């Protein structure tokens, strides 16, 4: 009577008959030897990722499923969007709070729809006219000191007005021309020389 062919672990030579084993390149290993020889080390806990665990990988780095979480708030990143910063993995909320530009008004992270001017950014709904408090959006605006005004409000509060024809001096960003006496100039608003006065705000 012939002896049955042995079926042993390639590394430790223990019998695999009736035991769980893993094949690698047509060679069989017991689970213990396979994990010691080939298992990836988890970035989170530094333990081997066993054959009975899910191995999650990102850029040649590996994690147990339960260790794949945001480096700041520790929420799971499994099947969720995340961002990488240096060697850290962050959920989108933590990444936005720490690294995204902040709205100059509410100081919350600016989203994709934002207004930008001279290095500052705003949510579209936070970029308001200082006078009427309405969103400026994509309309023209005029900066005045540290504030911003829509064109109609700037004209009401700051623009010069012709005393004769009552029209606003054209172009709120254009300073009125003054004569040598400093009191009158020729205005394109009407054909005759106009006396200019600061338009009273209302």
Automatic annotation (TrEMBL):
One of its GO terms (molecular function) is zinc ion binding. Residues 40-101, 102-160 form the LIM zinc-binding domain. InterPro entries: LIM_FHL1/2/3/5_N, Znf_LIM. The keyword ATP-binding does not apply. Keywords: LIM domain, Metal-binding, Nucleus, Repeat, Zinc, Zinc-finger. GO terms for cellular component: nucleus; Z disc. The keyword Ligase does not apply. Its main location: nucleus. It is found in: Nucleus. SMART domains: LIM. Coiled coil: none annotated. This is Four and a half LIM domains 5. It comes from Salarias fasciatus. The lineage of its organism: Eukaryota, Metazoa, Chordata, Craniata, Vertebrata.
